[in-house]
Amino acid sequence: MLIGELSRRTGVHTHQLRYYESQGLLRPGRGAGGYRQYTEDAVLAVRQIRQLLAAGLSTQEIGFLQPCVTGTAPDLEACPEILAILRARLNGLDTRIETLARSREALRKHIEVTERRMSDGRRECEPGTLGPVG
Q1: Which of 25, 84, 95, 117 could join 20 via S-S bond, C-beta 3.0 to 4.6 A?
Q2: Which residues form a coiled coil (predicted)?
Q3: What are the angstrom distances between the C-alpha of 34 and each of 11, 24, 67?
Q4: CA dihedral 89, 93, 94, 97 (to 10 degrees)
């Protein structure tokens, strides 16, 4: 199948499929005129890639894990190297979540103090000329 058909069947844009190819995650053959030719297995591979990306893995990590991936879930073969990668990624996510939670709490406190001062009728500053941020 051509890249457009793979895109239609997986719901993944063609530029993303070409990116996966550039990362070594997809390996299409070349047909007449140099067009990419994908096998039926590419549909499953794209679905696996999307699931692993959704789990927060990088394309480099997925490339390392790909020989050990089976099924649409996808399922990963049991081995210490795979568990080490997954645990490292989870630890990184936990650290980022903790950092975001601290930032959220600090911002919430700033909002509370500012709202309290506004309800007192105080206007203590003139904001800069950049306008609202966000």
Answers
A1: 25
A2: none
A3: 23, 18, 27
A4: 180
- Of the options 1.20.1260.10, 3.40.50.970, 1.10.3720.10, 1.10.1660.10, the CATH number for the domain spanning 1-77: 1.10.1660.10
Residue 107 burial (10 A CB sphere; 0-12, 13-18, 19+): exposed
Inter-residue contact 2 to 35 (CB < 8 Å): yes
Q: What is the mean pLDDT of each run of 10 residues along the chain (134 residues)?
A: 95 97 94 89 95 93 91 86 92 96 97 88 69 60
| Per-domain residue ranges of the chain | 1-77, 78-122
